[in-house]
Design brief:
alpha+beta; TATA-Binding Protein; Endonuclease III, domain 1; five-stranded antiparallel beta sheet; 16 helices; 42% helix; DNA-7-methylguanine glycosylase activity; DNA damage; 3-methyladenine DNA glycosylase/8-oxoguanine DNA glycosylase
């Protein structure tokens, strides 16, 4: 077994490692993610400009973050460890305009917006989440990673896989997409992105609205998908997931006591520009639960169609 490339990093700020990395996990059973049952190390896999990598991260009691990486992309992964854990983020400039948001910000001082600095690995699963339930999207992600992602480099926990590369994704037969429950519209969007994936990585360098505009040039990539990608790839603090089935309702009930549509959420979040996504993240983690009045949306099994 090859020796890992290791790095120790002592952040100059309070840091909740699990909280920062949590948005990268695509549900229970995500083959690209593993967290120790005792709350210890977090393992994740990914693609890099140099190839596949496995990264293990844990935080010592003295606050030092210890990372180890394996695979061709190991050096790239440890180099970008601070960005992954929110070193480029600026939560101190955030101003709360609602008591619930203010309370969440106070209780979560270690929460920052991390940046993977890799677009493809977060764009692919974001497209899978378009217009379907989370259960459906997570199932498709698991199946595609397990069948078409390479085994995680190094001594990773059993079953971990690297997200399918753009090249491998373009070679997936049509019937395998159907088997994984992916309809034709999402398949076309994923393949369109895979064809220009090397160009889309520039979005992480552009950042902000410019980065989101670059992503939206690809057919099938709209405001919601671009925002979901921006939040993770470059820690975009203002990228709101307009078009989401749940978020406007949750934000509305939490901040003004009634459900909202996208236009209403846009108005309510206006005081938080340019950190609207951070405000939404605090709402989501505040513990607030909106009232439920009807049945949940039923998943649609595209494999049976």
């Amino acid at each position: 077994m090859p020796e890992p490339l290791e790095r120790e990093w002592r952040p100059a700020f309070r840091l909740d490692v699990a909280g920062v990395l949590a948005p990268l996990r695509r549900g229970r059973g995500d083959p690209t993610w593993h967290s120790a049952a005792d709350g210890g190390a977090i393992w994740r896999t990914g693609t890099t400009p140099d190839g596949a990598a496995t990264l293990r991260v844990h935080r010592r009691t003295d606050g030092t973050v210890v990372a180890a990486a394996w695979g061709p992309g190991a050096a790239w992964s440890v180099e970008h460890l601070p960005a992954l854990l929110g070193a480029d983020d600026d939560p101190d400039s955030f101003v709360a305009h609602h008591p619930l948001v203010e309370d969440a910000a106070r209780r979560l001082p270690g929460l920052r917006l991390g940046a993977t600095r890799r677009v493809w690995d977060v764009l692919f699963p974001a497209i899978l989440e378009q217009k379907v339930t989370g259960t459906e999207a997570r199932r498709s992600w698991r199946e595609l990673c397990r069948r078409f992602g390479e085994p995680a480099p190094g001594p990773a926990p059993d079953g971990m896989r690297v997200p399918p590369s753009p090249e491998r994704t373009r070679a997936i037969p049509d019937w395998e997409w159907h088997r994984a429950g992916v309809d034709s519209a999402r398949r076309r969007a994923i393949l369109a992105c895979a064809a220009v994936a090397h160009r889309l990585e520039a979005a992480a360098d552009l950042g902000g609205e410019d980065g989101r505009i670059l992503l939206r040039r690809v057919p099938g990539i709209g405001v919601w998908t671009a925002a979901e990608t921006a939040q993770r790839a470059w820690g975009d603090a203002d990228a709101v997931s307009f078009g989401d089935f749940h978020i406007p309702t949750v934000v509305g009930w939490a901040l003004v006591g009634r459900p909202l549509d996208d236009a209403g959420m846009l108005a309510v979040l206006e005081p938080y520009v340019p950190q609207r996504h951070r405000a939404v993240r605090y709402v989501e983690l505040s513990g607030f639960r909106r009232p439920r009045f009807g049945p949940r949306y039923s998943p649609k099994d595209y494999r049976a169609m």
